[in-house]
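Project standup — Tuesday

K.O.: blocked on the structure for the chain from last sprint. Re-posting the sequence here as requested.
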Amino acid sequence: MIEGDKEELSILNNFEIKIAPYMRSQIAGDLGYFRHGTSLIEQAIASIRGIVEIEQARNDRANQLELRNSEIAE
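H.V.: unblocked you, prediction finished:
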């Protein structure tokens, strides 16, 4: 076996034993935060949609009243 090959295997072994478990737990933690954040964003979007619908309904009602008043005035 060539010396460089032994060094490469040693690096891979070190990665598997020491670094990979840490990275797995870090990724799992990051995914947890991501899922939680995604849920909050979805709730915020739903709230904003609700607010927009309410405002649209108010505007539609005001426009209808204005239209009726202008028809009555004619």
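K.O.: great, moving the ticket to review. The chain has one helix and no strands. The mean pLDDT is 89.
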